[in-house]
Design a protein that fits this description.
Layout lengths: L1 H28 L2 H9 L3 H6 L11 H16 L18 E7 L11 H7 L1 E3 L3 E2 L5 E10 L4 E10 L6 H6 L7 E7 L8 E10 L5 E10 L3 E11 L4 E4 L2 H14 L7 E9 L6 E9 L5 E9 L5 E5 L12 E7 L2
Antiparallel strand pairs: 1-15, 2-4, 3-4, 4-5, 5-6, 7-8, 8-9, 9-10, 11-12, 12-13, 13-14
Length: 330
């Protein structure tokens, strides 16, 4: 009887162990709180692993200023960078700023449209009058959406109480500035660029010769116009008569119709022997080598254009305006 009771007790203990072992293994394999509730409900364990975002925005102006001061103090602690000189580098000489004649060489200065398209705005060199009291320059604007360029020509007063270099370097609109001519600014012409460049002041400082270059994106340079601004009248005169005279001469004397070719004028400056006239050269693209159409001159009123030579380019022009140039010392 005792043996049967002991055997029954051992069976009960074995069944209990199996049940407990099964329960423990299930607890390890499946946890409702961990595997279900934490994924679908805002449980404590989910909050611990996924904290809610904090709002660090200042709630009051005092708190804002306090945080701003902390950021400023932290910025002060950034160490400044230090540089060591490379002994292999060669020191460049200091630039030497010189005052020189502007139109030298004659007719040289033009606007680089490639640079203009990158910077969208370019100022030309400021040219000082022979009386040293005024400066003229142009500003060119480029509009990439329409591939157009326009230009304005400005006349500025200089501070005569300063030395010449300082009055040029410190020229400011406060001393007086006005637009004396503009081109390509009032009408929209797709793919057309109009730029202005100062040619030179007249010898008496009362007139300004400048050139307008018109280019068309598919074809390049199209046409050059010569213009003069009269300080006494405040008006601009386009000297289109010189272009008409060149076309008339070659049509009547050589049966060359320049309208059928690409040709242009190249103003080079005021005539040194006749200070009321401006000299221009003319060329036509009739083949691989441009054809020289002669040296011509025209008075600033536009009354009379004159052929000077069909072969020579050796003419003396005056250099009346001044400008600053940077050169390096040897």
């Amino acid at each position: 009887m005792t043996r049967k009771i002991l055997k029954f007790f051992n069976i009960i203990v074995l069944i209990t162990c199996v049940i407990c072992s099964t329960a423990n293994s299930c607890a390890v394999a499946f946890d409702f709180k961990r595997d279900v509730a934490s994924k679908f409900f805002w449980t404590k364990s989910y909050k611990e692993k996924h904290p809610a975002p904090k709002n660090n925005m200042p709630k009051t102006m005092n708190e804002y200023y306090r945080e701003a001061n902390k950021a400023a103090e932290k910025a002060k602690e950034i160490p400044s960078p230090t540089f060591e000189k490379d002994e292999k580098l060669v020191d460049l000489p200091d630039p030497n700023i010189l005052l020189k004649k502007y139109n030298d060489p004659p007719g040289f200065y033009n606007i680089n449209l490639n640079n203009l398209k990158k910077s969208r705005k370019v100022n030309s060199i400021g040219v000082v009058s022979p009386n040293l009291d005024k400066m003229v320059y142009s500003t060119i604007y480029y509009y990439p959406s329409t591939k157009t360029a326009g230009s304005e020509l400005y006349l500025m007063n200089l501070d005569v109480n300063k030395n010449l270099q300082s009055r040029i370097e410190n020229a400011h609109v406060n001393h007086g500035k006005k637009v004396i001519h503009r081109t390509g600014m009032d009408a929209l012409e797709l793919d057309v660029q109009k730029t202005m460049t100062v040619l030179d002041w007249s010898e008496d400082g009362k007139k300004i010769a400048f050139k307008e270059k018109i280019s068309f994106t598919p074809d390049g340079l199209w046409k050059t116009n010569l213009l003069v601004y009269d300080m006494q009248t405040g008006k601009v005169k386009e000297l289109s008569e010189v272009r008409e005279a060149i076309k008339y001469y070659w049509r009547e004397n050589h049966e060359l119709y320049l309208n059928d070719y690409r040709w242009d004028i190249y103003p080079i400056g005021w005539d040194a022997l006749n200070p009321e006239r401006i000299i221009v050269f003319a060329y036509a693209s009739t083949g691989e080598k441009p054809k020289y159409l002669g040296a011509w001159s025209i008075d600033y009123h536009g009354d009379r254009a004159m052929l000077m030579s069909l072969t020579s380019t050796n003419f003396e022009v005056s250099q009346n305006g001044l400008c600053l140039r940077t050169e390096y010392k040897n």
